[in-house]
Amino acid sequence: MDLKWVDLIVDRHQEKRTALVSILHDIQDRYKYLPEEALRMVASRLHMDINEIYGVATFYKSFSLIPKGKHSITLCLGTACHVRGGPKILRELKNFLHIEPGQTTPDRQFSLNVVNCLGVCAIGPVMSIDGKFYGEMNPMRAKRLIEKNNRKRSGVKS
Ligand code: FES
């Protein structure tokens, strides 16, 4: 694994311990997860115990210690989205991607997560792909959006 980006990211944050969360976010943006080697390098550069770094990395739900897919799918199953059909959408996503929430497809294209609220309850059920929100979702539309992302990746025009 090429760790030069870790060095550059730590440099960009001027080796400040107070910037640890930002450093971890930048590393995850680059590698799509927090590789152990990267965390060890951060610990060394910030003169911190590796267990402290792991403590922060496991405290925040947004961090992942296992590789994530190229595309991040997040489905809301909070009350407002649940009563409007969230569970049916989850069933469709699981069937289509053949993964459970918290998992990544074997080709590392898609990661699936569920949350309790995305903060836009009025347009529920809500799903996000790579941070872009899609409201008034239904199982068929969710599947089409993923197929569309898959076509983009393979260069096929829709
Ligand atoms: S409950 Fe789904 S966005 Fe709030």
Structural overview:
The structure is a single chain. This protein has helices spanning 4-12, 20-31, 36-46, 50-59, 79-83, 86-97, 139-154, and strands spanning 71-76, 110-115, 127-129, 132-134. The two termini are 35 Å apart. It folds into 2 domains: 4-59, no CATH class; 71-154, Glutaredoxin. With 158 residues, it is of the alpha+beta class. Strands 2-1-3-4 form a 4-stranded mixed sheet, covered by helices on one side. It has 7 helices and 4 strands, in the order ααααβααβββα.
Give a summary of the structure in a few sentences:
The chain is α+β, with helices and mostly antiparallel strands and 158 residues long. The chain has two domains: 4-59, no CATH class; 71-154, Glutaredoxin (3-Layer(aba) Sandwich), CATH 3.40.30. The protein contains seven helices and four strands, in the order ααααβααβββα.
